[in-house]
Amino acid sequence: MSQWSQVQQLEIKFLEQVDQFYDDNFPMEIRHLLAQWIEGQDWEAASNNEAMAMILLQNLLVQVEEQLDRVSQEKNLLSIHNLKRIRKLLQGKYHGNPMHIAVIISNCLREERRILAAASMPVQGPLEKSLQNSVVSERQRNVEHKVSAIKNSAQLTDQDVKYLEDLQEEFDFRYKTLQSLEQNDKNSVLIKQEMLALQAMLNTLDYKRKEVLSKIGRVIHEIDLLLSNMLTEELLDWKRRQQIACIGGPLHGGLDQLQNCFTLLAESLFQVRRQLEKLDELLTRLTYDGDPIPVQRPQLLEKVNFLLYNLFRNSFVVERQPCMPTHPQRPMVLKTLIQFTVKLRLLIKLPELNYQIRVKATIDKNVSTVSNRRFVLCGTHVKAMNMDESANGSLSVEFRHLQPKEMKSSAGSKGNEGPHMVTEELHSISFETQVCLYGLTINLETSSLPVVMISNVSQLPNAWASIIWYNLSTNDPQNLSFFNNPPSATLSQLLEVLSWQFSSYVGRGLNSEQLSMLAEKLMGQQVTYNDYQLSWAKFCKEHLPGKCFTFWVWLEAILDLIKKHILPLWIDGYIMGFVSKEKERILLRDKTPGTFLLRFSESNLGGITFTWVDQLENGDVTFHSVEPYNKGRLSALPFADILRDYKVIMADNVPENPLKYLYPDIPKDKAFGKHYSCQPNEVSKPSDGGVKGYVPSVFIPVSKILNDSTDPHSPSDLLPMSPSVYAVLREHLSPTVIETAVRCKPST
Q: Once rounded to an integer, what is the mean pLDDT over residues 562-568?
């Protein structure tokens, strides 16, 4: 079943979450029509490879064109209209930036996987629940409402200023007219009446000036309150959601809404600034005793400028954290001399700023790290922000060719650093720029979340563990000394993040039973883990009891095994994976002989094994576990084929496949049939092809079980033997002869 088919079967509350991240950037209609094709492409790799992204974009347009031809033949007018609109949209938005559509589709697929994983969980995790707090949603609506109200108030004040300007012009005209009259006419009744009228106008002007200044003051006060409270909280929440998304959590959104709020507030402040300038012009033409403009205007202008400074400084954000194209799901881990990408955005989107802001990137600026290692950035580290590269037209800049290079330090400094010390060092990528607009000059600075620098890819697992622990444990964006004394983490939250590693990296998260097994492995016993605090050392530095590796190294090796060798089986949910030997036997004990389950090895890194239940002649139940298969052996033979062809030779019996039903009672071929590379009876005969004079062969995994032993056993070497030849041998040779042949090793 395709991922999209699984999504369509979700409950309505999960479908509403899916609906939130499909829009005109990637229409859901295309996701639906091209579901199988879309899921078959590597969008993650394309999101950091422009050539690959361009090819995929072109192929996507070809697929859309084919769908358009189909609906045209069916004369479906509505579908024809929609597909033409979508084709035009895709061509217009992404032709100049194909990687952006790859990023969007990759994120959508990832978010679908996360929602599918969440739907399979009996209870929503604590972290995800906190991110979807109803109070937060209500605050978002309040912010948007208040910003809209402030914008309207500023525009209405514009009308008041215009009325005041017109009133003063009329006063100026009538006053000058009165002055032009002859001296002997000034005592006339008409003159006295005009002077009274002018006095009344002056009183009205004074009242209107005070009213306009009061309204401007209220607008400034509302902006100040909004920026100091709700909008700042919204921005901090977005940054926290970004942290969580970086370690596999829910896809973070809301930046476009924040951009709209920041931009409207900036426009309102500049509008108020122009209103104050207009009042200054009116002041030069008319002033009087008790005039409120010279008293209040300087204070209001100072406040407006202060708010603009703060607004701009808060609006300069890292939209996409540093990430190596080779490891798109491991952001903030950077390898020396390997390019990484990072994207910044200014949330104040004003046309006057397009291509006018140049951003400079540096590393470890004005900070002291916990080691003597120092780095510089090579490549293009100064670029201009623009509205053309982003599909949504945001004012942003993306650095795509930066490389960290380690500077030579004093002799011996590197040698004092242990393997964990390197991956616990945190560094900072900083960005600075200057905005010059309407007479204001504002210096802006921001920084990425802390990054870990590695010099060898073997350091990647522990470096990623550091990134997980940091972003799980703190919302401080710049605590570079964090690992001097790393805090403990709540076990329930850590388990939720571990499930995210599986949903984001290998397409299927962990259920409550699997998480319980991980909790027991971390704690060494069965515990109620809701409020349990786990140390950093126990997670990543201390070896598991009786093992020569840590918990995290063991788990990372399983992720790697799934990704490279058994991904389809994992996504289908047929690998129980995380189950102890004791629980395994409890599950299988009452099942039909030949029932088996698949679990990850607890003693071998990156190993998977299967255990089946059997029944002896006396009725006793026995269990058999095969030696774990690692990535080396799975590179030679697909795991589904191993399950299909696996044979056991008992002491007095012919070889047979003991695997009948996947736990609890799924026929083996029904579960794994679609993943077999070929059916045994489809192997070609000698005359059908292959090298002339040779019988085509396949690998068949065979194990031998002794009658007097029920201990777990090891599979023999894989025997190159075609199914047809094997069938002939069974007809003509006794089991003893076959067993002898299996046990003998050929001479070399």
A: 90
Of 93 and 210, the one with more pLDDT: 210
* pLDDT exceeds 70 at position 248: yes
Burial (CB count within 10 angstroms: exposed 0-12, middle 13-18, buried 19+), residue 732: exposed
Q: Phi first, then psi: what are they for 17, rounded to 5°?
A: -65, -40
In the numeric block, the tokens 């039909």 are attached to 592
* SS3 per residue for 251-316: CCCCHHHHHHHHHHHHHHHHHHHHHHHHHHHHHHHCCCCCCCHHHHHHHHHHHHHHHHHHHHHHHE
Residue with tokens 């579901």: 35
By C-alpha distance, which of 320, 362, 321 is closest to 451? 321
Q: Does CATH place domain 3-120 in 1.10.532.10?
A: yes
What is the sign of the dihedral through the CA atoms of 71, 75, 79 and 82? positive
Which pairing describes strands 702-705 and 647-650: parallel, antiparallel, or unpaired? parallel
Q: What is the mean pLDDT of residues 619-628?
A: 88
Token representation of residue 415: 């040698």
Q: What is the mean pLDDT of residues 92-104?
A: 83
pLDDT digits (tens, 9 = 90+) for 362-378: 998 765 555 678 899 99
> Rounded distance, CA 109 to CA 104, Å?
9
Q: pLDDT over 90 for what percent of the chain?
A: 37
Model pLDDT for residues 658-689, shown as the tens digit of each residue: 899 999 889 999 989 888 886 554 444 444 44
Structure token pair of residue 181: 């009259």
In this prediction the pTM is 0.79
Least confident interval from 258-262, 705-709, 721-725: 721-725
Phi and psi, residue 363, nearest 5°: -125, 140
Torsional sign, CA 575, 579, 580, 586: negative
Domain residues of the chain, as ranges?
A: 3-120, 134-313, 324-407+421-456, 512-675
Whether the per-residue pLDDT at 511 is higher than 50: the answer is: yes
Total Cβ atoms within 10 A of residue 422: 20
Give the side-chain half-sphere CA count within 13 A for 144: 13
State which fold the 134-313 domain adopts.
Glutathione S-transferase Yfyf (Class Pi); Chain A, domain 2 (1.20.1050)
Beta bridge partners of 649: 704
User: What is the token pair recorded at 528?
Assistant: 């109620």
Q: Is 240 helix (H, G, I), strand (E, B) or coil?
A: helix
Question: What whole-number distance in Å separates Cα of residue 578 and Cα of residue 568?
Answer: 17
| Tally of CA atoms within 13 A in the half-sphere of 552 that contains its CB | 23
For residue 320, the one-letter residue type is: R
CATH superfamily placement of domain 324-407+421-456: STAT transcription factor, DNA-binding domain (2.60.40.630)
Mean pLDDT of 426-451: 93
Number of alpha helices (DSSP H) and beta strands (DSSP E) in the chain: 27, 21
- Closest residue by Cα to residue 331 from 473, 225, 452, 439: 452
Mean pLDDT computed over every residue of the chain = 83
Q: What mean pLDDT comes out for the span 258-271?
A: 94
For residue 164, count other CB atoms closer than 10 A to its CB. Answer: 20
Q: Which residue do the tokens 């056991």 mark?
A: 648
Q: What superfamily would CATH give domain 512-675?
A: SH2 domain (3.30.505.10)
Residue 671 is encoded by which pair of tokens?
Answer: 């579960």
Place of tokens 């504002």: 442
3-state secondary structure of 611: strand
What is the band of 546 on the pLDDT scale with cuts at 50, 70, 90?
Answer: confident
